[in-house]
Amino acid sequence: MYLKEKTKRQQSLLAQFTRTGDQTIITHLDGIKVQGIRYYRELIFNIIYDGISNAYPITTNFLSERVMMNLTHQFFSHFKCQTPQVWAMPKEFMDYIIQNQTKLCLKYPFLSDLLLFEWAEIEMFMMPDQPFPNFSEKGNIATDKVVLNPEIQVLYFQYPVHILHPRKIKKKHKGEYFLLAYRHPESKQVIFTELNRFAYLIIEALHQRPLSIEELLKKFFNSYSENEEAIVHFIKQAYENKIILGFAK
Amino acid sequence: MIGVGYRKDFAEEWENNPDSLSVDFIEVAPENWMNVGGYWKKLFDKKLQDYPLFTHGLSLSIGSPDELDFKFLKDLKTFLDSNNVVIYSEHLSFSKCDNAHLYDLLPVPFTEDAVKHVVKKVKSVQDILERPLVLEIVSYYSPLAAEMKEIDFVNAIVQESDCQLLLDVNNIYVNSFNHGFNPVEFITLLPRDKIAYIHMAGHLQVDDNLIIDTHSEPIINPVYRLFEFSLKWLQKPIPVLLERDFNIPDLKEIQSEINELKRLYNKSLQKEKEHVS
Ligand SMILES: [Fe+2]
């Protein structure tokens, strides 16, 4: 180690000041211009707050800017941000809130769902391109194995954060909600679509490997009363919407 | 060669109207595009077919007391290699400390021990990435525990590590204003042969004695003059980048700044040629 303890400590104190805004730290910094040092705190806090409030606009609007700034302050002073990619930092904020803001999450039981929903859009836009399996666009939907779009994510919520404004969500809405987020294979736009439990299970099964309608029926016929018609209908729609890419070769 | 910082803000406009911006290369922060796919990456990849890519990193934190992040460096190398990146530049500052990223550039103490520490890290980075590191002299709003002059600090690092320099002309202007020195004198004390890249940008004066390097405004005249001086002093062609990160105007306005940079660039180099002949 070439770095002297003193140098290291000065850097650490400056970093602490920018993370916490604790004014008492300033007196321990050597040879500084106080006004300039204060700007660092302001600039960095703004970067963090802008990143978070832009990632979670619905949450920010619901909780208010004041509350969100306070949460940002809690997060940034207590949590050590790990990602070198600033666009991914709001994910660490979400994890921090869900793990540490127990009171707030009890007050608003849908908050974790809401954060997850808002983050999913960014994640789906940004995630690395997934390798596309071999498939052919033409086939027989009634008999051929169908191939799922690999750029999907299924979200499970207890509250309908994807349908209702948070102010309108009540205890009575608690239930089971499945939301599919996927990238359109050509436009690369992110699309959300709600699934029922049955559709969710089909997607999960197709996520493992391509299956035909017959195989899907066999898999689910015993546990569900859904008929062949419902499966065919769902698969057809999924194919039109590019949730299903085509048919196994 | 004049380039522009590629931004999502104008990516669609530029894609739909390729003639709306005429540059020689584009620059991005690798952190914004590493391990990224989807819509924006598709647009970006299209541009990469037509333009060489320069990079300007944010999270290396070469001046940090912390150890280098080797996982990050591995991903970074993949990104640089797979996109045939011409230059990988970073900042002579720290943006991570005590294992926490800060996402902004803090001033490293100008001390002998920090020189040694940074030099060791620069050498590791250059070994891992198998390419020279081009370090930018950053703008700063306060020194921290300095024991030597900034110019001596910078020069010692360059000399001992054999890295290259990014001369951000606006940063030198901002620092000379904030800390009261002569920017021309500062530039002439730098190792001319190590300067590999130039940045130009605008800033915001927040009060009588403080400028913040916001990259949110047009370039001001004194910075253009310092740019002309730097080119004449350098006596060599060099890539020049226009940085605009906030308050981004339409492409017409960006192009007019690019044009002004081109004009001054050609004028300065032309004069140099005449001078030589
Ligand atoms: Fe710069």
UniProtKB/TrEMBL annotation, chain A:
Residues 149-238 form the NGO1945-like C-terminal domain. InterPro entries: DUF2063, DUF2063_N_sf, NGO1945-like_C. Pfam families: DUF2063 (PF09836), NGO1945_C (PF22106). Residues 11-97 form the Putative DNA-binding domain. It comes from the Bacteria. Transmembrane segments: none annotated. This is Uncharacterized protein. It comes from Schleiferia thermophila.
TrEMBL record, chain B:
Gene3D superfamilies: Divalent-metal-dependent TIM barrel enzymes. It comes from Schleiferia thermophila. PANTHER family: UPF0276 PROTEIN HI_1600. The lineage of its organism: Bacteria, Pseudomonadati, Bacteroidota, Flavobacteriia, Flavobacteriales. This is Uncharacterized protein. InterPro entries: MbnB/TglH/ChrH, Xyl_isomerase-like_sf.
